[in-house]
Design a protein that fits this description.
Layout (H helix, E strand, L loop, with lengths): L2 E3 L11 H10 L5 H22 L5 E2 L7 H8 L16 H9 L9 E3 L6 E3 L14 H13 L4 E5 L1 H6 L9 H22 L3 E5 L9 H17 L4 E5 L8 H5 L5 E5 L4 H11 L6 E7 L9 H12 L7 E5 L18 H4 L5 H17 L5 H15 L7 H11 L9 H12 L16 H11 L5 H22 L16 H4 L2 E5 L6 E4 L2 E3 L3 E8 L5 H9 L6 E5 L1 H6 L2 E2 L5 H21 L4 E5 L11 H19 L7 E6 L8 H6 L4 E4 L9 H6 L5 E4 L12 H12 L7 E2 L11 H22 L4
Parallel strand pairs: 1-10, 2-5, 5-6, 6-7, 7-8, 8-9, 9-10, 14-16, 15-17, 17-18, 18-19, 19-20, 20-21
Antiparallel strand pairs: 3-4, 11-14, 12-13
Helix pairs in contact: 1-2, 5-7, 7-8, 11-13, 15-22, 17-18, 22-23, 26-27
Length: 762
């Protein structure tokens, strides 16, 4: 009989209870015992919900106190040496220190989880002596069984994926690390087997990316070892986010089940299934419900897909499940009361996806007629959205078609623009600036809330925002920054702010998802054609510029980042969505320039996040992403300086595309990765203006002058001093005012030292 399964469930809670508990603990407002109790309540509630919905195989150990990769690392005692860990169960102080940093030690690097908007803590293997500190999957299994009577499916990140996502070892040491970790994984699995666990889900999403013959040998070694060590335990080898590479090799591994993504990896996995079939001794865990998107599944299409799969896999060896963990979508659409009916009717968040999985499983067991009413209701809802006016703006579609056919380029090449801009701005060696936002205190957030609730009128709110701009423009001048920003106090989120002012967007009330740690975002929904309606940033930027003789940057979020950090419609290509956004943002860039703003920053931190996992698809994506950026910025005057910013990700493999964006100045995160990005510029020439972030804004610690000076000096060994800028890693919205001011003072002092050392060399 066909069963249902889920790969994971959102940990944050419908009202972000998880986030609030963590932050109360970090602030010293919650004792550790209270934190454990509150998180257990949240965790059990999530399990109970899946149980009540009727999910057959419910995941356990998918819950986390911060991040699932960090959980795996600390379970195996892999703790960076700078945290003075001495063995045994990793204390929460060390666990959170790795993630967030301490006064004494920098946090570990954070980077994106494959091509999603979630970010994980990168394990550091250098100097680590792995040992099993606690069997977290076993504890999670016992809790679910004892508290709720649930026969859970423990989830654990697989050895190959864990190692491929880690740092601090050479490729030649990979096999040695497998030998170190195999006994620990085996102990975890053996203890699960002795406990009576039926299925364990071992996540190996790395298998949808490029891997080689040596990795295949490693996989055979790992899973053959498991097969011999735990013969009574059913092992599910789970992949997601794309189709697997080397399908026939994967399904031949000695495991009892294989999980494949039939949403984002549909074409590749379906083709492989038809070509090679599926082993008769294995269970296919078919990911047919999109775990990353927010749209209702077409039940009719999914039933047709399941029927196709049934030609290769009989019902007793077929499991219907989500394509990946539901971590990437909001908890429930049931709370949303302010969306237009045609949009709300087409949404499915985590809880609704559970319902879809159960319905599809029911139909697979009892026939399509058993859910005929639900199928018709689903198709009707999807049709209403397709036919809505929001998705049929002919004027936008026609304008984008015209500019999309053009080649967007600036009037002059960078070398000539740079001379014109330097003559206009007369900036010193190593200009200093920040990335855009300044601390948003509790008072700022409260003021915005009062304005949104109607307790403050527009005039009072605008006056308050201007007071904040006054304060921070004065502080920037006093600190000694060369290029200023207005601080973005009127903005909740760098994507949401623009989405609220553009046509084609909608916003949920409770549609939160986890970005990293306790950082939750409420992504906009791009559900219709995007259109510019009125200037969005001119008023505040123009006001800030009126307060100072120093240049103030206009601050925009770029088209690719807005797209990648939103939930987007799935009825047209992402390329077309990007061009619609670029066309709208171009009009804002032109409005800023007309208002006298001569430096404009168009941030694109999420370009790398949207990079397809398949190498064959990456060049095309980068080409149209670069084109969208240039569509946004190409119409400005030669003396108008275009800045951009990128963070969170590895960029070594896309330096050429970054340069092709033709921004006059780019700032890139480097300090969180301890300057490793600089190595990319040791191997690749970069001829445009660039600022490599000299301190990590995700940690509350104040970096010293010497630390920043060291970062600057290493960068200047490979970058042109005449084109080098100095700035923090990212925006400062989440930091406190005191630490921000102290850090920026140190940054300016480090810049003064660098100027003195290099003035005669330039």
């Amino acid at each position: 009989m066909v069963k249902s399964s889920v790969l994971g469930y959102p940990r944050i809670g419908a009202n972000r209870e998880w986030k609030k508990a963590l932050e109360a603990f970090w602030a010293g407002k919650l004792e550790e015992s209270e934190l454990h109790a509150q998180l257990q309540d949240i965790r059990l509630n999530h399990l109970r919900k899946q149980q009540e919905k009727g999910i057959s195989l419910i995941p356990v150990n998918d819950f986390s106190y911060y991040d699932q990769v960090l959980d795996t690392a600390t379970m195996f005692g892999i703790v960076p040496q700078r945290f003075a860990y001495s063995g045994g169960a990793v204390p929460l102080s060390v666990y959170y220190g790795i993630a967030r940093g301490t006064k004494e030690a920098a946090a570990s690097e954070m980077t994106k989880w494959f091509n999603t908007n979630y970010h994980y803590i990168v394990p550091e293997l250098d100097g680590a002596t792995p040992a099993l500190t606690e069997n977290k999957p076993l504890a999670a299994y016992r809790e679910a069984k004892e508290k709720l009577g649930i026969e859970g499916k423990p989830v654990i990140i697989g050895p190959l994926t864990f190692l491929k996502l880690s740092k601090g070892y050479k490729q030649s040491e990979m096999d040695g690390w497998i030998d170190k970790l195999l006994p620990l994984y085996t102990q975890v699995l053996q203890e699960l087997e002795r406990e009576g666990v039926q299925w364990v889900q071992i996540d190996e999403p790395i298998l949808v990316t490029k891997w080689d013959a040596a990795d295949l040998q490693r996989l055979n070694k790992i899973y053959s070892h498991f097969a011999a060590a735990v013969p009574g335990l059913n092992v599910l080898l789970q992949t997601y986010f794309e189709s697997v590479e080397q399908y026939s090799d994967i399904v031949s591994l000695p495991v009892q089940g294989v999980g494949l993504d039939f949403v984002h990896g549909l074409s590749g996995n379906a083709a492989a299934l038809k070509q090679f079939g599926f082993p008769e001794n294995k269970v296919l865990f078919a990911g047919v419900v999109d775990g990353r998107g927010i749209w209702k599944a077409s039940l009719r299409e999914k039933l047709a897909l399941i029927e196709e799969l049934s030609e290769f896999v009989p019902a007793d060896r077929l499991i219907i499940q989500s394509s990946c963990s539901l971590l990437h979508v909001p908890v429930t659409a049931g709370q949303e009361q302010k969306l237009v009916p045609e949009l709300k009717g087409a949404l499915a968040f985590a809880d609704e996806k559970l319902d879809e999985i159960v319905l599809l499983t029911k139909a697979a067991v009892s026939g399509e007629a058993s859910i005929a009413q639900e199928v018709e209701a689903c198709e009707s809802a999807l049709d209403q959205l397709r036919q809505s006016a929001a998705r049929n703006r002919k004027e936008v579609q026609q304008a984008v078609a015209v500019i999309g056919a053009q080649n967007p380029v600036r009037n002059l090449p960078f070398a000539e623009r740079h001379i014109a801009q330097q003559n206009k701005w007369n900036l010193p060696l190593f200009p200093t600036t920040t990335i855009g936002s300044f601390p948003q205190s509790a008072e700022v957030r409260k003021a915005r809330q009062q304005w949104r609730k109607g307790e403050w009128d527009e005039e009072k709110y605008e006056a308050y925002i201007r007071e904040q701009i006054d304060l921070w423009v004065e502080l920037q001048e006093e600190i000694g920054l060369d290029v200023l920003v207005h601080g973005e106090f009127e903005r909740t989120d760098m994507v949401e702010f623009f989405g609220e002012k553009l046509a084609g967007f909608a916003f949920t009330q409770f549609g939160w998802v986890q970005s990293y740690g306790s950082r939750c975002v409420k992504p906009p929904i791009i559900y219709g054609d995007v259109a510019f309606e009125a200037a969005m940033t001119v008023e505040e930027t123009k006001y800030a510029q009126s307060l100072t003789n120093r240049p103030v940057k206009g601050m925009l979020t770029g088209p690719i980042t807005i797209m990648n950090w939103s939930f987007v419609r799935d009825d047209i290509a992402r390329e077309q969505i990007a061009y619609q956004l670029a066309y709208a943002l171009r009009q804002e860039v032109e409005a800023l320039e007309q208002a006298g703003i001569g430096m404009i920053q168009v941030d694109e931190p999420a370009v790398r996040e949207g990079l397809p996992l398949k190498e064959n698809d990456q060049a095309e994506y980068l080409d149209w992403s670069v084109k969208a950026f240039r569509m946004t910025t190409c119409t400005v005057q030669d003396t108008t300086q275009i800045h951009t910013h990128m963070c969170y990700c590895e960029f070594h493999d896309m330096i050429d595309s970054i340069e092709a964006m033709d921004a006059d100045v780019i700032s890139i995160e480097t300090s969180r990765s301890h300057g490793e990005l600089i190595h990319s510029f040791e191997e690749n020439t970069y001829k445009l203006g660039i600022g490599l972030g000299v301190y990590d804004i995700h940690s509350p610690r104040v970096p010293g002058v010497e630390e920043m000076t060291s970062m600057i000096e290493r960068a200047l060994r490979v970058l042109d001093p005449k084109l080098f800028w100095i700035n923090p890693d990212c925006g400062l919205k989440t930091r406190g005012a005191e630490e921000t001011i102290a850090s920026l003072r140190n940054m300016v002092e480090a810049t003064r030292i660098a100027r003195n050392q290099h003035a005669l060399q330039v």
